[in-house]
Structure formats: structure tokens, C-alpha cells
Structures
1.
Amino acid sequence: MRIRGARGTAPRLRAGSALSMLLLSLTIFGPISMDMYLPVLPALTEELGATTSAAQLTVTACLLGLAAGQVVAGPLTDRLGRRTPLLVGILAYIAASALCAASPTIETLIPARFVQGMAGAVGIVIAQASGRDLYQGGALIRYYGRITVLGGLAAIIGPLIGGQLARVTDWRGIFVVLAGIGALLLVGALAVHRETLPPERRTSGGVRHTFRAYRTLLSDRLFLGATLVTGFMNAALFAYLAGGTYVLQGIYGVSPQGYSLVFGLTSLGFVVFGYLAARSAERWSEHGTLAVGVLMGGAGALGLLATALERLPLPAIVVSLVVIVGGIAVTAPPSTSLALADHPRLAGTASSLLGLTRFALGGLAAPLVGFGGAHTTLPLGIVTVAASTLAGVAYFAIVGRDPGASDIAPAAH
């Protein structure tokens, strides 16, 4: 059996509480950049004289930037260390947010959002890679569990904060707030972030070396399987985020306040199950916890499909959504830990491929739920079932064949 470090052992390096909080805070870049300005999107559309589809491209541009930025940032952080790329990335995020706030037209805002996403991706990559630098074993799993929980919390409070800010400012003011958050993180990085990747553990070489690193990672069965599992599960999540509001409000007649309640309930489920998954993966088995998450996601997706086919009442779809989102949360900590565990020297590159897969498959799945129009639940059910089925295939055909998959005994402490 492949040994990845004993569970429950102390990390090779201990991060101070301030550094740990900073690294965890970097994970909010994605959710707040995507979510905080959504409540003012209609006002933005009207003020800039844009079409609805053009305004929605500002969301797509940020998503694409988050995906592309991780591909660029990952190899760079393995080569240059974590601190310098982090500082450059935060500075670029502040500048891009300010440009978003000052954008005179939608044509200016769209590329500014892309750059904002790319810059924010640096923080996401470094949060994962620095965790791999600092921790191992059970401590690493706990760290990725905290990342999952904090990401879920950011997804919950992002739109809520944006809605409250809309009472006192316009959409430009919200981008100013995002720039301010970036400035706070910059001060924190300058104050407490020490280099977590020493020179002797850095990679060397240019583009050719980067492609060799990608080939190394993709030829690793465990990395490939864990990455595909989390990618397909996130495809189901993005399908829910894209289609949930139309299904709940358009088909079931739920009010905006009711939709917020359902969204909050599923997000709470994400946080709770993400926390439980980290504890379970640490104490029981990463492989076993990942399998449970995939099965949960599949059960929730089948519930959505059954709801569409049998026209079941609202409680059925709410329960199905909570189960599928909970399953996605359960897969996040073990899939990240398994993907990065065997590649300490390529943690940045591995994190970038992990993030790219999540965003790319999510971005592909999101528009598919609209193919049937706004008056049917069937596309959402089909897309989530397909995504969770592919996640199951990736687990049982690839991850499940890893020697460590048979190790489901409780972890030693």
C-alpha cells in the first residue's frame, strides 16, 4: 500500500494562527468575487445600457478567469515560491476591482472581471498549495476541511452582504468594497505570510518543465481519479446554482425570500457536511469518505430526476437539493487531500489542475440546464444525474483501485 504519511501525525511545519487564518481567508476570493455583486446585477445592466446576456457575461468572465488563473499561478508558485506570486496576485486583484468600479461600459467591465478572476485564482491556488507545504496526514485533511467550510460560508454570506451593501451604495461601490477586501488581505500577507516553500523544494525550468509536470500528475491514477471526482461533483453544483432559481421560483412559485431560505439551507448543509467529511476522512478513511460523498450526490440527483418525472411537491426537491449539495461537500476534503498528498514538490501545479477541472466542468454543465426552457425541472435532473454518475465511474474505476482504498480502518491518533 502506498504510504502518504501517517494519519494524525503532527505537520512537518506548524503554521502560526495568523498565517493559518490568512491562508484560509484567501479561499474567499472566488465566492465573494462571484456572488457579492449578484444582487445589483439588474441595476448594473440598466445603468450601462447592456442586454441581460451581456451582463451575465460578467459572471462568465470571472468564472473563466478563476479557471485560467489557476493554470498560470500553479506552476509559477512551484517555481518562484508562494509569497511573491501571492503579493502580485493580490495587487492585481485590487487594481482589477478598481477598474471594475470605474468601468464606463459593459465592454470594459467584462475583461476587467476576467482579470479580477485570474488575480483571485492566485489566492485560491496558494491557499491549497501552502497547506500542502505546511501539513501532512490528519492535519492536512483538517485544513482542507476548513477550506471547504469557509468556502461554503463565503457562498452564503456573499449575496447577503451584497444585498445589504446595495442599500447604501451602487454596484460600483460593491467593487470598491472588493478592492478594500483585497487591500486588507495584502496588509495581512505583508505582515504574516512567510515563505512556505523553501528554495530547495522548488521546481526549475520553463514551459517544457510545466508540461512534464502536467504529464506526471495526469499519469498518476490517484491524482487523476480524485480530480475527476471533484470536477464532476462540482459540475452538479454549478448546474444547481445555474438552474435552481428558475426551478424554485419559476416552476414552484417560491418567492425571492423563499429562494433565499432554500439557498441558505443548502449552503448550511454544505458547511455541516464539509466539516463532518473532514473529521470522517481523518478518523476513518479518505477513500471511504469520498465514496460516501459520491453516493450521496447520486442519491440527491436521482431525487431531482424523480421530482421532475413524477412532479413531486416542493419538499421533495428541497430534500434532494440538500442531499446532493451535502454529497458535494463530503467529497471536497478527501478528494483534495488525495490529489495533493503524493505531490509535495508540485503542490501548486496540482492545485491549479484541480481548480481548473472544477471550474471548467462546472462551466460546461451550467448552461445545459437551460436547454429545456425555464418551465421544466427535467434538465436539472438529467445534468446532475449524469455528473454524479461520471463521478461514480471515476471513483470506482480509478480511485477505488488505488491500494489505499482498501484501508478503511480507523486512523491512529
2.
Amino acid sequence: MIKLSIITINFNNAIGLQKTIESVISQMYQEYEFIIIDGDSQDSSKHVLQTFDDRITWWVSEPDNGIYDAMNKGIQQSKGDYLLFLNSGDYLYDGEVLEKIFTQKCEADVIYGDIDWEENGVRSRRAFPDTLSFGYFVWDALPHQASFIKRKVFDEMGLYSENYGISGDWAFFTLAICKYNCSYQHVSAPVAVCNRDGISCQPESWNDIVQNKQKLMKKEFPLIYTEYKALQSNADELKGLRASRWVTLFSFLGLIKK
């Protein structure tokens, strides 16, 4: 059977960490290793880790240099054929998720499912497309919480870059799919439940995200960088238009579809 490495990073989020751990150890599918990287938390996270020590394959609590440094530590410790990054606070959709994924034929370099956003106790489904394109990555990304990545992809591409701030996973997926032509497969089912209080979901982070995207595109895709900026501008304009009061009114009246 395919062995999976589940990697969780955590920093001062004991409640979220316990929720994540409980969702993993309750899985019907047991062919996984569970690795947790804690950034020397000063809350009760270490107590949580010690409580579940016998259900965790390997864990460490020590200072790190941020999200992707911690995730890279997890990669270096992993031995699975596929890797899943389920950070503290996020949790698997139900106890049968992994069983449903890994009892199917798994060959693609990246297998990704859908997620449920959770905010103030309310969930909303986020479905991802079956077909990916360069245009898709102009303004969107794949959910690392619901993406199973073959270990060989990291062996060939290297670890997550720490040069793109909080957009490191977006940069990795963009290069994997658009530059290195990695194969992918969409599973049309929810894999994880994610909290919307993450740093990348905050409005104050949006400008950094745009800057990081431009930085990668200019470096890795210089011949289409001008077109990329135009696509990004059009996407931002379209988002603004969709959010306008006129479009909302016309949509309510049934005159247009958003």
C-alpha cells in the first residue's frame, strides 16, 4: 500500500494542534507516518505533543525561521511516497478521507481535493478545478491542506523556497505544474477543513502576496512576465467588478450571473 507522510507545523496553537492530531489518528487508513514540527511554542503545545507522543511518528519543538523552514524540516524527516501538509488548526474532513484517496489508483505527481472553509462555526465549500493552467495560477493556488505531493517531486525540484514569503506553497505548485509539467489529478471531494484566520487569508497580506507572485514570475517566466502582469490586472479588475454594488443588484434581479 502507498505510505503517506502527514506533516504538521505548529506555533503557539495548542487548541488547533490537538484538533489536527485527533483528526489524523482517527483515520481508518493507517499506512501513514505523522511528523510534527513545533516552533518552540510557549503555550501548552508541548504538553499536547507529549500527550499524543505514542501516536506521533516523530516530533520536535525548537526555534525555526518560519513556515517554510518548518515545512522543509518535515520533508527532510519524511519517508512516505506522498506528503500532505496539514498545519495546526486544519483537520481532515472525516475519518474515511485517506481511505477513500489511497484505495484508489494513485499515480499523479499531485493529487488534490476540495476543502471546507470554516469561519465562526460556519462552513463553506471551496471546489477546485479539474484542469489547471498558467492563467489559473495568476491569482489562485492549490490547497496544501488537501494536496498529496509525491516525494519524488521534492527530490527533483528541491524543498520549499523561503524567498517568497507566505506564498512559498503557491510558488512550489506554480513551478511544479507550469514549468516542470508535473502530472496532477483532482479528487472532487472535501479532504480538509481549514480555518480562515490564517495569515494568507488576511487583507493586510494581499499586497505581499502580489509582490511575491510578481517576483517569482519575473524570475522563472521572464518571457511572459508582461502578459502575466496584464492577466493579474484583469483578474483584480474582474474581482472588483464582481464585488460592485451594481453587479450584486443585477445578479439579485437575475439579469446577470456572477
3.
Amino acid sequence: MDLCNQTVDTVIEIKKNTPEGTMLFDAILDYIKEHKDSPLSKLKGEVEKVLSWFSFLIIESTAKTIVHPIFYRPDVFTKNAIKAVADDIKDTLYGLLFVQAAFDQDKPIFATCHGAQLGYLHAGGGLTKMFKEKGSPYSETYYARKNPHEGPEELWQIDVELNARQRDDLHVFSTLKYPLPDIFKHKGEEKKEKYINKDFRHTIAMTAPIPDTVEVLSFHPLSSKSRKDEKYEIRSHPAINEDQLIKFKGLLKDIPVVDAFRYKTMLGFQYHPHYTYDDLDTSSIFDYLINDIIDSVYK
């Protein structure tokens, strides 16, 4: 942590000297090559040493930090920006260095929510706020939609974030039934219909540009990419009034929003498949992941 604390001001200086169109993390890696005795270089070395003790990397969601916009917005050059603080710079840098180390060591990465956003950012993908932040972060604003895959009616909670959990008990999830991506199907099941439960709770979207190095496994239900293939139908519900239905139509995104992808050795999910492991065929994702880890260890 001492090394992390010493890097914040340096990251800001690198950003100020980074040409427009260049990713900040790429500029940081260039800086490390040129300044081998710097705290940034030492931090990278420590991260590589720690990861060398393990066979794979897991980067989970976080409720305390966010991906700092200094890494993906060209107009941000300060510690405090858009509800982000210095700790978010440290956390984002630390996560990106672990992603880089895993790629360099050819080790599998399982990344969800915050972790997926870090991987998508590393690949050069675009990140953007899903919704404008107004008022209380946890106002009870409900919207319902018909599931296009004959699943139960979905109930979304949207204010500053999209949430598919019960506010008073976050261990209770809605069932959001969506097709299992083909890569997770077992041999001989390629043509069989299989489904997973997607559990969403997030504020930032992984969107355009979608890097060529990223293989998109599925798009978010609120994305224009999904709505081209699905009959999107907003439903009435006792908790919903007409004003909310009108507002919900305005929240639908006319941009691609990625919610699952493969990038190098990483599987990234905007949702949390480990939370809904026993629902539908979600466990198939982990069958694939475990075999991937075994292959990487014993190759």
C-alpha cells in the first residue's frame, strides 16, 4: 500500500502529458519501462511476484471503489472527479497491473462487475455512466419488462444504478433468464437451449468502442444490440405508474452495452454468475472456467 500511495501524483502527471487518443494505462507502462527505479515500477514488480504464487486470478465486484474516470475520460486530470477520489486511482491502477501480470504469465482471469470493467478498460473499450445521478442513490424506482426468453417477468430498480436485487435483502435476486453463451456449453450440447440467470447491479456500462481483441459473449438487456434481436416489452406492474414507464423508455440505450466477454485469458461478466450458480444452467460457466484453469496449470 505504501507503493500505491506514492503513485497517485505520478499517475496524474502522466495523464497530463499523455497525447490525446493514447490510453493512460499504456502511457503508465511506457513510463515504467523508462523509470525502472520508480515506485510505479516497484509496484508492478511486487504485483508480478504475488501473482506468480497462484494459478489464476479472480477480480470481483466492489462496493467501496470505482474505476476512476481519469483512466477512461480524456477531460479528467484530478484525484477528485465525478464521485471518485484518490483511493479509486490506486485501486484502478492496482487492478490493471494484476490484469497485465496475469496476461504476461498466461494465467486465467475470472472477472465480474468491477473486475470486468478493468479488463474491458485494459483492452481499450469504452466505459460510460448508465444513468445520471440525481437525488437519493436508492430511491425505489421500479420498472418491469417481459422476459423475451419465456422467463418470469423482470422487475428492474433503476435510479443512479441498475439493480436486480431486493434492496432490503441483497441476497435475493430476480430471475433474469438469458441464453447461455455457446462457449460454455458442453460437447454435444451446441444446439441445445440452455439458460443462465443474470444478476445485475452496476452504474457503469462497458460500451463502444468495442476493441477487436474482445470477443463479445452477450449484450446487456438495456442495449440497442439486444433489442434488435428481442421483442422488448415494458409491462405494467402494481409498483409502476405511467410516469415511470415513460421515463424507462428514455433510459433504454441506443448504444451497444457489453455484459459478458472473453479477452485473452480473461472471462469478464458485468453480472455475477457465482451468486446465481445454482439457477438454470449458470454452473456451466464454472465447468468451463475450471477446465480452463486445469489446462493452464498442466499444459
